[in-house]
Amino acid sequence: MGPSLADTTWIYGGDEATITETLQNGRPGGMPAFGGQATPDEIADVVAYVMSLSK
Length: 55
Ligand code: HEM
Known about the structure:
Blueprint: H1 16-25, H2 40-53
The structure holds protoporphyrin IX containing FE.
Protoporphyrin IX containing FE binds next to helix 1 and helix 2.
């Protein structure tokens, strides 16, 4: 149900800081927050992975 993460079109932004914010705190359109379930290191790993998808 989420948007494609493998293109270069972003709703909120594809930079490191914005993706980190999205994963930690979620987004109002239905994206859940993962900040309570993942460590900052784990979030950083997923952010790097998401950024690699749009290349
Ligand atoms: C590891 C799991 C996930 C990752 C890495 C991830 C990543 C992201 C990112 C980066 C965005 C923002 C995209 C943009 O700015 O264009 C996003 C948005 C969104 N995600 Fe996720 N997501 C995950 C899991 C989920 C799950 C489990 C759901 C729903 C059950 C979900 C639903 C959504 C929705 C609906 C949006 C759009 C939110 C809005 O328009 O406000 N995501 N996701």
